[in-house]
Specification:
Blueprint (H helix, E strand, L loop, with lengths): L5 H11 L11 E5 L2 E4 L4 E4 L2 H4 L8 H11 L12 H13 L4 E7 L2 H16 L3 E5 L8 H5 L4 H4 L9 E4 L4 H7 L4 E7 L1 E2 L5 E2 L2 H14 L2 E5 L23 E4 L10 E6 L18 H16 L2 H17 L6 E6 L4 E5 L4 H9 L2 E2 L1 E2 L4 E4 L7 H15 L2
Parallel strand pairs: 3-15, 5-6, 5-7, 7-10, 10-11
Antiparallel strand pairs: 1-2, 2-3, 4-12, 8-9, 11-12, 13-14, 14-17, 16-17
Helix pairs in contact: 3-10, 4-10, 11-13
């Protein structure tokens, strides 16, 4: 059978896919490190990284070898029986987590991690209300969607799960008004990703944590995009000394395989049997990949690399002299360029010049490259952005 061209692939997907994704006209078939190639052999620097999934780079040899070895042993094993890879991963997650997180629930994605955290919070507090932030994004299933701000995600599916309230991000006074004796939990991202790459202010984040402790609510930190080295620490909440009661992780956890987890603190207490579960969560294949991924992040000190490369990217983007730029902001290798106009045409122009990046709302270009990206590749990205913004 002849190899498919990019046009062939796009035609097939357009014909048979359900069509819910807005697509860029790029058909990727191969990756290595921070580079990807389309079916016609064209090379790109990948600043999408699967929406922040490919932290250790594409086709990572260490992760690939762990997957291959586990494929020959055992792929699936339900949580009703014990498994070696699951046990080792649970131990590893707790060992790298912020202090106080001592157990974990394993699942398949970020939105499932958020769903589990909401269920656990309502169950152990006996309360129903969840407070979330404006501009926040936590997933697309009904519970996670109920905590997601943008109306274009929410309105087609209303009525959603009741009991959710939104308050402005980085406004502690508004959070103080919202958190009451009826609040089961507050959920926040340390850096709002989909909402525009807005970092939380240290006093705000610590203040929300103290407020939850004072009023009996649980503090849920969503580290789905910020976790596993992306911001310059293993987890973004470590920048501010936060100790969440529940921490949701996914994306970069398993080198590209679908996996998520909720890290659980002492304030949550014991969870009854059979209150939650799933079929594929904690399967040996993903656990082996996650162990290899975390091991690689530690061995190569990728959080430090993300801090250094992120500072380089931020400085380069901030130095661009373009009247189209409103602000450059971010943390580590999670950087947003807010424009004074729609970002879509500039993302398309970047792709034509061999750089793939994401949107974060209508006017923000978002950069989430693999943490293995080189200094030379960062310089190329900055040069290409300068080109498209100064045309």
């Amino acid at each position: 059978m002849a190899a498919l061209t990019s046009s062939d692939i796009m035609a097939l997907e357009d014909r048979y896919d359900c069509g819910v994704y807005p697509m860029q006209p790029v058909a990727l078939v191969r990756g290595q490190g921070a580079r990807v190639w389309d079916a016609d052999g064209r090379e790109y620097i990948d600043c999408m990284a699967g929406h922040g999934v490919a932290n250790v780079g594409h086709a990572n040899v260490v992760v690939n070898q762990a997957i291959i070895e586990q494929l020959g042993r055992l792929i699936t094993c339900h949580g009703a029986v014990y498994n070696d890879q699951r046990a080792l991963l649970l131990q590893k997650l707790v060992s790298i987590a912020p202090p106080g997180l001592e157990r974990a629930f394993l699942c398949n994605s970020g939105t499932e991690a958020v769903e589990a955290a909401f269920k656990f919070a309502r169950l152990v507090t006996g309360r129903k209300k969840i407070v979330a932030a404006m501009r926040g994004f936590h997933g697309r299933t009904f519970g996670a969607l109920s905590a997601t701000w943008r109306k274009e995600y929410r309105e087609p599916f209303e009525p959603l799960v009741p009991g959710f309230e939104f308050v402005p991000y980085n406004r502690l006074d508004r959070m103080q008004e919202a958190v009451t004796e009826e609040t089961a939990a507050v959920i926040l991202e340390v850096v709002q990703g989909e909402g525009g790459v807005y970092p939380g202010e240290p006093d705000y984040l610590r203040g929300v944590q103290e407020l939850c402790q004072e009023r009996g609510a649980l503090f849920i930190v969503d580290e789905i995009q910020t976790g596993f080295g992306r911001t310059g620490q293993m987890f973004a909440c470590e920048h501010y000394g936060l100790r969440p009661d529940l921490m949701c992780v996914a994306k970069g956890i398993a080198g590209g395989l679908p996996m998520g987890a909720v890290l659980i603190g002492a304030r949550v207490g014991a969870l009854p049997k059979r209150v939650h579960g799933n079929t594929f969560g904690g399967n040996p294949l993903c656990c082996a990949a996650a162990l290899a991924t975390i091991g690689y992040i530690e061995a190569e000190n990728l959080p430090q690399r993300a801090a250094e490369r992120g500072a380089q990217l931020m400085a380069g983007l901030q130095a661009i002299q373009s009247p189209r730029i409103r602000e450059v902001r971010g943390l580590g290798l999670m950087v947003g360029v807010e424009l004074k106009e729609q970002a879509g045409p500039y993302l398309a122009a970047l792709a034509e010049r061999g750089v793939l990046a994401l949107s974060a709302g209508p006017t923000v270009m978002r950069f989430l490259p693999p943490l293995v990206i080189s200094a030379e590749e960062i310089d190329i990205v900055v040069a290409r952005v300068a080109e498209v913004l100064n045309v």
